[in-house]
UniProtKB/TrEMBL annotation:
GO terms for molecular function: tRNA (guanine(37)-N1)-methyltransferase activity. It catalyses: guanosine(37) in tRNA + S-adenosyl-L-methionine = N(1)-methylguanosine(37) in tRNA + S-adenosyl-L-homocysteine + H(+). The lineage of its organism: Eukaryota, Metazoa, Chordata, Craniata, Vertebrata. This is TRM5 methyltransferase. Involved in mitochondrial tRNA methylation. Specifically methylates the N1 position of guanosine-37 in various tRNAs. Methylation is not dependent on the nature of the nucleoside 5' of the target nucleoside. This is the first step in the biosynthesis of wybutosine (yW), a modified base adjacent to the anticodon of tRNAs and required for accurate decoding. The keyword Mitochondrion applies. Gene3D superfamilies: Met-10+ protein-like domains, Vaccinia Virus protein VP39. Residues 193-464 form the SAM-dependent methyltransferase TRM5/TYW2-type domain. It comes from Pluvianellus socialis. Keywords: Cytoplasm, Methyltransferase, Mitochondrion, Nucleus, S-adenosyl-L-methionine, Transferase, tRNA processing.
Length: 473
């Protein structure tokens, strides 16, 4: 064996000596094959039932299904919590109650660690003792290892492991485990959702729709504070940025409160657009602003850019075409006490740019003095369409260009399904503006929306020759 280079530490281990003394010579070769993954000059099929640490008996298989609900729940569409009850056999130690806490600390990696399941139960035969439940995955053959036995010896505890019938109920399983047991085998399980206040928002796949009411109820059961679950039933409408939804479980109250970056908002989730996954992006843009800057929010929604900008003492012009969004924008401005710092509009985005934005820029840009630090930012967060609005900036202003530092910075959002999404976004923006942005723009990956679909933000200062139309000599 030494000739083949097998290390001494393998040949000297108790595991090897025990195997070598209790098995035939071929079995020793198999053990070595398991160690190295090969045997020089030959091919061996290793039989799992010889040296596998995975138990094979029916009773022990039940142990490995400790975290699996009863198989009869497969295909359930209306939730029946009683059907999830099952009994599994787990290993236990009998311990004097005085040393239970010490034992739990000493065997913390061996004791059962499962939220909702007791690790210590009463001993029905001895009121002075307790039964400590061990993890069946760590004690697969109901026998402790040498290190655990040494701990028990020091604590004067009998190392004999007994079997205990543990009853599991619906409450003991996680939502992923419940849904994996219910949905057909091999099909994708959905347990993730967007949380909007007390509402859980799902985007279910077609194969999950027959189980949607069960999925909704499981999410409510397993997530404290969720009292309503909805599923999107169509794509976002590009005009008002809302979508049809079905209430799957819980109350039908879709007016909710959310908190983002320490700012509170209220909204009707069925009538306005809100995406909690954009919290980081909202914060990123606000970090770019300085007190005294001017922000034009073209597609403002209920105010996740506008309100924190106003709190940062920026001058804010916020617009949204959706009357519901406009109404909630006004409401949230008052809620956050910035209603006197934000000028709100209920207009088409193009009209907003051609009207209030052009008017303000025409008035303020000529007044900028060399070295003045005021910056102008235009946020266009309508990824499905915003790039199509960039042509508005062509000759939006008339006159001589202001200093380069005073040119407005645009933050425009868009979706891309191309292999090089940054290049795709830049090329589309250039087509709308009618000029090259090479060396004059940056792109930022906001999030992955779907497989092969990215949301990006392209930021650039509007070139002077695009923004200004010079008067004829």
């Amino acid at each position: 064996l030494w000739r083949f280079g097998y290390p001494a530490r393998l040949l000297k281990t108790n595991h090897f000596r025990t195997a070598a003394s209790n098995t035939s010579f071929p079995a020793v070769w198999i053990l070595l094959a398991q160690y190295s993954g090969r045997i020089p000059g030959c091919f061996v099929v290793v039989k799992k039932n010889r040296f596998s640490t995975m138990p094979e008996s029916v009773e022990d298989k039940a142990n490995l299904e400790l975290y699996s609900p009863h198989p009869e729940v497969r295909g359930m569409t209306l939730l029946n919590r009683e059907a999830f009850k099952r009994t599994v056999v787990v290993p236990i130690l009998k311990v004097k109650k005085e040393i239970v806490n010490t034992l739990l600390k000493s065997l913390k990696h061996t004791v059962l660690q499962r939220p909702g399941l007791k690790r210590v139960v009463e001993d029905p035969e001895d009121e002075d003792s307790r039964l400590v439940i061990l993890d069946p995955y760590k004690i697969p053959e109901f026998s402790l290892g040498e290190s655990e036995q040494e701990v028990l010896k020091q604590l004067n505890v009998c190392p004999d492991v007994s079997k205990y019938n543990l009853e599991l109920t619906y409450e003991n399983f996680k939502s992923e485990e419940i849904l994996r047991a219910v949905l057909p085998e091999g099909q994708e399980v959905t347990s993730g959702f967007s949380r909007v206040g007390h509402i859980a928002h799902l985007n279910l796949r077609d194969h999950q729709l027959p189980y949607r009411y069960l999925i909704g109820q499981v999410i409510i059961d397993k997530n404290p504070g969720i009292t309503c679950v909805v599923n999107k039933t169509n794509i976002i409408d590009s005009t008002y940025r809302n979508f049809q939804m079905e209430v799957l479980a819980g109350e039908s109250n879709l007016v909710t409160k959310v908190k983002e970056n320490n700012i509170a908002y209220e909204l009707d989730f069925s009538k306005v657009y809100w995406n909690p996954r954009l919290s980081t992006e909202h914060g990123r843009i606000i970090e770019l602003l300085k007190p005294g800057d001017v922000l034009f929010d073209v597609f403002a929604g209920i105010g996740p850019f506008a309100i924190p900008a106003a709190k940062k003492k920026c001058h804010v012009f916020a617009n949204d075409l959706n009357p519901e969004s406009y109404s909630w924008l006004l409401h949230n401005c008052k809620l956050n006490k910035v209603d006197n710092k934000i000028k709100a509009f209920n207009m088409d985005g193009r009209d907003f740019l051609l009207g209030p934005v052009r008017e303000e820029l025409s008035k303020e840009l000529p007044l900028l003095k060399e070295g003045q630090k005021t910056s102008f930012h235009i946020v266009m967060n309508l990824p499905a369409l915003a790039i199509e609005f960039l042509d508005v900036f062509r000759h939006l202003l008339v006159g001589e260009p202001c200093s380069t530092a005073g040119l407005p910075t645009v933050h425009c959002y868009a979706f891309s399904k191309q292999d090089n999404p940054a290049k795709d976004i830049q090329e589309r923006a250039e087509a709308s503006l009618g000029t090259s942005l090479d060396g004059r723009c940056s792109t930022y990956l906001v999030r992955n929306v779907a497989p092969n679909k990215e949301m990006l933000c392209i930021s650039f200062q509007i070139p002077a020759d695009v923004l200004y139309k010079r008067p004829c000599p």
